[in-house]
Amino acid sequence: MLVLWLTQTAGTEESVILVNETVETDRVFGQYKDSKIALYGLGIETEKALQMLDVQYEVVGLLDSFRSGGELYGKPIISFDDAVGAGIQLIIVVARPGSCRAIAKGIGDQCRQKGIALMDIRGKDLLETKNVSYCFRDISGATRAILEEKIENADVVSFDLFDTLVMRQTLFPEDVAEYVDCQLKEKGILISDFSKKRMESEKDLSRSAAPALVEIYWNLLETSVGKTGDITAEKLAEMEWNTDFDLLVSRKEVCDILKRTVESGKEVYIISDSYYSKNQLAKILEKCGIVEYTDILSSSDYKMSKRQGLYKYLIFGEDSKRYLHIGDDIVADVENAERWGFETYRVYNGLDLLEEVGNLGLVEYMQSLSDRLRIGMFVSVIFNSPFQFEKEDKQIYIHNAYEIGYLICAPIINDFVFWFWQQMQENYFQNIWFGARDGYLIKKMYEYLTMMICDDGRTSYFLTSRVAAIRAGVRDENDIRYVDEMKFSGTLEENLHERFGIDASDREYVDGMSDEKGLLQFKNTILKKAQKSYENYQKYISKLKIVEGDIAFFDFVAKGTIQMYVQRLISNHLKGFYFLQLEKEYMKEKNLDIQAFYEGAETDSCVIYDNYYILESILTAPQPSVQEFDNAGDPVFADEMRSESDILCFKKVQEGIFDNFKTYIRLCPNMQRAINKKLDEVFLELIHKVKITDLDFLNLVVEDSFFNRMTSIEDVI
């Protein structure tokens, strides 16, 4: 027996799976042609699925999370137990992937117990056990406990600096030269193959002695051709130092170990192969909160690298002290230190850890300096600790909501904001509206970007919602029918109350009221209420500073319902800018002007398509959803269903996103900023592949009163 399971949201605002003629039904479901079929869900897509499948497949009924009994589309609505009793062999979920995950989580165990397969409309096995490959399965090394024991047994402890105590927020050290090159080009200084020559110059000088940075640039300028202007080696060295200093962050756990070692009374040295001076290295340490140590040894001061014998300056006479060196480089920090009689401990650097887990699929889509910065920022946080592999299960962990925002959500949201800004520049909209509540954070990010580039912004946070827009925008039977097609998972009375604010006491009496007759039974009451809602909404809009010209309207992921009804409230043309438009073909007849971040062929396959519930839970405002406006044009909000911990949690996620955005803008040269959706999607997909331990985040709920739906984040990751 075959069951097609379609969610209540299929065919609604949140439905993103369209059963269409392009689906190769027989290829996907052919093995179940002799099985019985049922469909789950009561949306309009259920009817389309029936038309496609009922010809050659035996469809026995419909399943739904909220309702059983009765009939729809000529098929009985049955319970899960009824379906099992009928001998079900397969349940097919026709819904957006996030809903599929939630359903699989809810009934997956029962399906396994009963031997029932569970698939989506595309043929994906929803019972397939997730293979967690994003872990340190193949990594081994000395543990933190071993390090602490070695420190305890040593008299003198030395630490490497770069990639041990500090790490850069870009993927490779060589990237720093490219940042400098970008700065030079912005100043009109063009040095042919600058980055390449910078690295070659260092390599050439290092053959005989460890050079200082200014010496590297003296050598570079002597052999360079191009438009160098009056630039000097000293100025170039200063530019690189300032750039590099800004990119550096501390490796907190290793820095804490150093501080505790100093506190224990041991001699502690910093020894570094570096073209920076001792004073410059001291400034880096101070940035990390390290101000107490015995001394700093920089190779450029001694004109000698670790390989060339820098370690000898830590050995005083013929004493019997025990020496320990801690660093990340196998050759410089382990082999060379051991030659001088040091005990050693290798610290995994961030890039080591990234490579040990197959680069998490990130490097495959890396195309530019901008991408290397994004990945570097990611690595500097998630692999900041060199001891993460010590977990018994060796999984990669994210422990707090802030890091979820910074690491996973930020890249795709950042790129949307950059794209949105580009669209605003190309069209020069006089009015830019960020629709509540999804526009709350996006507006702040956009305004920060415009502030950094001295744009005037022209933005408004526009109070709206599906409920508010529909209540004010409904005009006739067709509008009511359109709303009714967006199936509500509750009673008719609840539907009237939630969508139109109509209770039993103020609605018209209808003899023989039934769910089957729907909202049209109350046409007069709905339209009368709509007129009043329209007048009050107009009072709110009149308070906004609207100038002549088109209005750019932001919405997150949507069909366009809000835009359609808001357009009726204003004379200005409304152009929507979305992450993704749902049911585009279905909405074509509405003649909405919408431009989406994801368009065309990429729409069905993009990761945002699968994961927008997750983003929807955090792209929100601290205030409840607006339902309508009062006689003064002031908003009337719905009851707040979220707890204080919920609000604090998504604020922390937003803080992480915003900090990532500001860091990227600060560090990435203007000419290097580039949108890379494929890389963004790999970041976002990590939420399903690493271990999330923040219970407050997992317990966040996407609340949608319009459909009477509550979806937990834990159910979709």
Model description:
This protein has 717 residues and is α/β, with parallel strands linked by helices. The chain folds into 4 domains: 2-120, Rossmann fold; 147-349, HAD superfamily/HAD-like (Rossmann fold, 3-Layer(aba) Sandwich); 355-412 and 643-715, no CATH class; 429-600 and 624-637, no CATH class. 43% of the residues lie in helices and 15% in strands. The chain is built from 28 helices and 27 strands. A 5-stranded parallel β-sheet has the order 14-13-8-15-16, sandwiched between helices. A 5-stranded parallel β-sheet has the order 19-18-20-21-22, sandwiched between helices. Strands 1-6-7 form a 3-stranded parallel β-sheet, with helices on one face. Helix 8 packs across helix 9. The two termini are 29 Å apart. Residues 4-23 have low confidence and may be disordered.
Notable features of this structure?
five-stranded parallel sheet, 28 helices, Rossmann fold, elongated, alpha/beta, about 725 residues
Distance between the termini: 29 Å
The count of helical stretches stands at 28
Strand content: 15-25%
Count of DSSP strands:
27
Which whole number gives the mean pLDDT? Answer: 87
Q: Mind telling me the C-alpha Rg?
A: 31 Å
CATH A-level architecture of the largest domain: 3-Layer(aba) Sandwich
Quick one: CATH superfamily of the largest domain? HAD superfamily/HAD-like
